[in-house]
Amino acid sequence: MQEDNLSDINIQDQKTKDNKELSIWEALIPVVILMSLLAYNIFVKDGAWFGDYSNQYILLIGGGIAAIVGALNKVSVGVMLKEVLENIKSVYKPIIILMLVGALAGTWLVSGIIPAMVYYGLQVLSPEIFLPASVIIAAIISIATGSSWTTSATVGIALVGIGTALGINPGMIAGAVISGAYFGDKMSPLSDTTNLAPAMAGTDLFTHIKYMAYTTVPTIIITLIVFSILSITIETSGEADISNLLQTINATFNTTGWLFIVPLIVIALIVLKTNPLVALATGVVSAAIFAVIFQPEILAKISDTTTGALSQAILSDVAIQTPNKTLNELFSSGGLIGMLWTILLIASAMVFGGVMDGIGALARITKSLLKMASSVFGLFATTVVSCFGLNVIASDQYLALVIPGKMFKQAYEDKNLAPENLSRTLEDSGTVTSVLIPWNTCGAYQSDVLGVGVGEYFMFAIFNWLSPFMTLIFAAFKIKIRLLRQAKVA
What we know:
24 helices; disordered N terminus; single chain; mainly alpha
């Protein structure tokens, strides 16, 4: 789930522009230039070509190139600007959520909620079970809420803090959290993407979930096995340092179980289908109240006034100093302003994706891929490539489901394939791979919230990159490929 439930998604408004005058080679020009610039920035300039906002500038340059291609193919500036504005409008809720998450992280820190989670978590989660336990915990919360975003913003932050204190690689922890969160996101009937995929393919929600379980359950089992092996083989410094960490946390904060009331309220509100904006805002306000009640000494260290301390925690950076270096790194937050980099990245990505859609490049690329699908396996493979490609190009999880869903629906019917084949493939390759792209809304969000770069957690987000391969294996061996009519699959 990106930001809300299906009631806020108007599927009829998800339109893809077609431009018959645009060739496939022209459509690919902005993509090739964008990928080349990003690769040059990462591998040659070490991410500092244009300073801290390199990716944002590159996405805007890519959008400019796409606009030139569109202008040469008689696409008006008005049409391109309209699509850009529609794209930016579609992500205003994720942007507000990001701002609230920044404020949430700051208030949960100064109120002692995050330190309390780390304090009690260190006593319960040992290094030997930590990674598979993180997958399971994230999966349960995500199924209950229908939201991978909320899962990361609550238990995800705590798990990264606990695991880091135990001396576990943050990339491994983030990968475990994301794997569990996206398993729950896929399988929860509360998730917007789980509703959107069958709506686009033409099947019903529970048929979709049941059919999706065939590929999703083996994938999460493999993920748990890998993380279990990693947990018992990695070297950690946790055992020796836990007593010192516990003493330091207890000496710095007033750690009490009452602090868990706030995250429980937030999770309960989302389970009850409360608007996520309201739920997160409630988490910020209630945490601020708890900070005044339980952590007056912490607030006094931040500012001369309680209002000033809370304002700083919500709006800007705050760091709680302790004698332990590891805890100092954990107990810091950038607040609302700390989310600015990610917000600008999402906005830049929407500019590029909007221009590409406005000039008809997305439709042209997808149609060209569809022509390559001559067999059943080829159709599945083309769907997977299209979904992943759109996550890269359009930088939006919804478009990675909507565009292939529209383009390939008739092709699946022509191959005598039931619509749940398409809906499952959309989720196996569109929903889960969005978090693997740094400039995609999902990748940018998860990276910023968890404090771990996409490059650091990519290989450990096992569930996410394994899912498209699993769906291709099922297609290649014709496992659980449901037909419209009983006949031999071509």
